[in-house]
């Protein structure tokens, strides 16, 4: 009996495929099969797999025209012989040799349709499974975790699934080439209701540079997957999932979206507007505009004009922030012949900072208080702004402007 089928979509992975497959074959659980689904590779991936198959009968090769990893995994699910299935990408590999055995035994012992491993590795650095950071080895044996308590959407590769459950509920990957796995995982975990966890470090993930993985077509599919999760979270009242997905649109994938859109690209713009409408309805604010849209709809140009008018009206100003955004803002002032208005650059801590930037003294907020309050422009990212705002308010600062995150991002591309 095949206990677990490991499904690996393969597309031009000749560099890593042998290491990937061998890491599976070295697992302590021997009643397994390795289902490689060649997704129309044009390199030697299929040839290398066939060579391994000559010595190892547990390796299976399925081949199809290039249709993307989601469809390839679906082919694997339908053709697998294992009682359980788990997914592995061809450029990654497994670490703990007994991880799959632990997960299989836990599912069998506790009659669970889904099991997750607790730890994994990103580029060699061990981390805990998303949103289960507090779980320790002493608290997981036999314990059931409920999806509605956590609402995770990432790291599907850390989960073992009962194949019969997937088939019975018709739980398959959407046909996207990017962001196909979060909608799958969300749907499966919600349908399963509960899952269990074992203390194992199963997976080694080679994290690529995010932006280079996306072109225009993949950005469209990314937005479709994000919209899927917005719709799903609204339908089933999954507030945490909704907030996570909104954050992914506005921060994690904002640069990807902006890089792959042009003013005439109505398809991406339409998807952003569709996502924006769902978000407006959920938060009850029909004036809300998500960050990528704000930047696309000429919001930056309007804001820049307003900002310049404010600065021109001041005799002197102070900047808060010496990081990338702060340096970008100095460049913005220089291009507009306003650099001489800046008399100080304020930082939280002088450690690691230069004494002067562009001949402007760098001081702390404590030093500035001794010199007297000046009009201040805070040039840090939006995630840091609330903390700085609280600090300024607490210390009696009244005249300061939180420079918009979207504007700082746009001008930071110029340095």
Which characteristics define this entry?
16 strands; 3 domains; single chain; alpha/beta; Rossmann fold; 10-stranded mixed sheet; 415 residues; Spore Coat Polysaccharide Biosynthesis Protein SpsA, Chain A; elongated
Could you explain how this protein is built, in words?
This protein is an alpha/beta fold and 415 residues long. It folds into three domains: 4-205, Spore Coat Polysaccharide Biosynthesis Protein SpsA, Chain A (Alpha-Beta Complex); 211-296; 299-412, Rossmann fold (3-Layer(aba) Sandwich), CATH 3.40.50. 44% of the residues lie in helices and 20% in strands. It is built from 17 helices and 16 strands. The chain starts with a strand and ends with a helix.
What's the gist of this structure?
The chain has 415 residues and is α/β, with parallel strands linked by helices.
């Amino acid at each position: 009996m095949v206990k677990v089928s490991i499904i690996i979509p393969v597309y031009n992975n000749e560099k890593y495929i042998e290491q990937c497959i061998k890491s599976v074959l070295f697992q302590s659980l021997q009643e397994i099969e390795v289902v490689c689904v060649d997704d129309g590779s044009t390199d030697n991936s299929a040839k290398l797999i066939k060579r391994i198959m000559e010595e190892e009968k547990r390796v299976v090769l399925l081949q199809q025209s290039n249709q993307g990893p989601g469809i390839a995994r679906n082919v694997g699910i339908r053709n697998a012989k294992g009682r359980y299935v788990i997914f592995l990408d061809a450029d990654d590999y497994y670490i703990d040799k007994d991880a799959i055995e632990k997960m299989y035994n836990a599912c069998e012992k506790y009659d669970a349709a889904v099991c997750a491993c607790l730890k994994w590795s990103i580029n060699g650095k061990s981390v805990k499974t998303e949103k289960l950071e507090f779980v320790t080895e002493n608290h997981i044996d036999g314990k059931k975790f409920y999806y509605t308590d956590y609402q995770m959407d990432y790291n599907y590769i850390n989960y073992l699934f009962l194949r019969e459950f997937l088939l019975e509920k018709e739980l398959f990957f959407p046909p996207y080439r990017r962001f196909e796995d979060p909608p799958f995982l969300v749907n499966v975990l919600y349908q399963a209701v509960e899952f269990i966890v074992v203390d194992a470090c199963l997976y080694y993930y080679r994290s690529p540079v995010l932006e280079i993985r996306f072109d225009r077509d993949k950005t469209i599919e990314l937005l479709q997957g994000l919209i899927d999760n917005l719709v799903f979270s609204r339908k089933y009242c999954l507030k945490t999932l909704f907030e996570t997905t909104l954050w992914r649109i506005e921060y994690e994938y904002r640069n990807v979206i902006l890089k792959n859109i042009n003013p005439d690209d109505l398809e991406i713009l339409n998807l952003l507007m569709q996502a924006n409408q769902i978000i407006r309805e959920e938060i009850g604010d029909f004036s809300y505009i998500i960050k990528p849209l704000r930047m696309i709809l000429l919001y930056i140009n309007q804001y820049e004009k307003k900002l310049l008018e404010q600065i021109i009206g001041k005799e002197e100003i102070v900047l808060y922030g010496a990081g990338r955004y702060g340096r970008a803002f100095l460049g913005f002032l220089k291009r507009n012949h306003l650099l001489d208005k800046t008399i100080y650059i304020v930082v939280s801590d002088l450690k690691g900072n230069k004494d002067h930037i562009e001949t402007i003294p760098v001081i702390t907020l404590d030093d500035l208080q001794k010199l007297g309050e000046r009009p201040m422009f805070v040039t840090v990212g939006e995630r840091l702004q609330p903390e700085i705002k609280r600090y300024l308010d607490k210390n009696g600062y009244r005249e300061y402007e939180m420079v918009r995150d979207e504007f700082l991002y746009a001008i930071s591309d110029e340095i």
